Amino acid sequence: MAQGTVKAFRMQLKPGFEAEYKKRHDEIWPELSQLLKEAGVTEYYIFLDEATLALFAFQKLAPGETTASLPALPIMKKWWDHMADMMDVNPDNSPIAIPCPEVFRL
User: Fold this and answer.
1) Catalytically annotated residue among 14, 22, 23, 25
2) SUPFAM superfamilies of this UniProt entry (predicted)?
3) Predicted confidence (pLDDT) at residue 40 exceeds the cutoff of 90
4) Does the active-site annotation cover 82?
5) Exposed, middle or buried: residue 44 (CB in 10 Å: 0-12, 13-18, 19+)?
6) Beta bridge partners of 5
7) Where are the domains of the chain?
């Protein structure tokens, strides 16, 4: 069975938004969730380092899938706008996402 791709990246949460960030993700829009699945995202985790407010994200993509088309989609841009008040973002409100290269796998 072919294995898909794993993507990991770090983002930064602003102080005081820990609970609201979790709440908004607990209430993720069904159309966004569906869009991610259609893009081949089979698993998506975000972890919070409470000491530094760093967010560590981990995505598993189905074989041959990529999330490259997502930034151009209106629902993705709407989500970024919705989340921009609580994260470090780029001028287009996309989160500043710093890739984390794989250094070990078991």
Assistant:
1) 25
2) Dimeric alpha+beta barrel (SSF54909)
3) yes
4) no
5) middle
6) 61
7) 5-99
